[in-house]
Amino acid sequence: MLRAGAGRGEEVVFRRLTLRGMSDDMSEETRHVRVRVEMVLEITEPDELIRAAWARIENDELMPQEERDQAAQAVSRDEAEAVAYLIDPLDLVGGVPGVVLAQASWSSELAEYDPDAAWDEEEEDDDVD
């Protein structure tokens, strides 16, 4: 086992397992893994972003025309909405062997960003009970 300090007096334990050991341990536990990813994207070319979102919406054959029109208007007004139309969680895991995407949800929002601020500062505030 490896031990590493996690900050705030906590200790995180990492186990080294062989493939056989992982299979044995996993048989008694759930086989689902929740992956949380947080990113901050800088929009450098808003017009390109919006055009790409329009193209994605227009090529979505499963979306009814009325919904396409509403979506096109939404991405025209809100760059975060445009990003949400272009991000696909399946792209993140599609090439990962041995996994199938069971469920996904995602959102995007405009955010203030300070590259000098601590990354997890907001999360630590939220975790305090």
Mean pLDDT: 79
Low-confidence parts: 1-14, 16-21
Q: What would you report as the Rg, rounded to the nearest angstrom?
A: 20 Å
Could you give the order of strands across the largest sheet? Answer: 1-2
Largest sheet, strands/sense/barrel: 2 strands, antiparallel
Distance between the termini: 30 Å
Secondary-structure element pattern, one letter each = EEHHHHHH
Q: What would you call the shape?
A: flat
Structural class: mainly alpha
Number of helices: 6
Residues in helices, as a percent range = 40-55%
Task: Summarize the helices and strands and which ones pair or pack.
Elements: E1 2-7, E2 10-14, H1 19-26, H2 46-58, H3 65-77, H4 79-86, H5 89-93, H6 121-127
Structural summary, described in words:
Helix content is 42%, strand content 9%. The protein is mainly α and 129 residues long. A hairpin with a 2-residue loop joins strand 1 (2-7) and strand 2 (10-14). Helix 2 runs antiparallel to helix 3 (65-77) and helix 3 packs across helix 4 (79-86). The protein is flat, with a radius of gyration of 20 Å. The chain starts with a strand and ends with a helix.
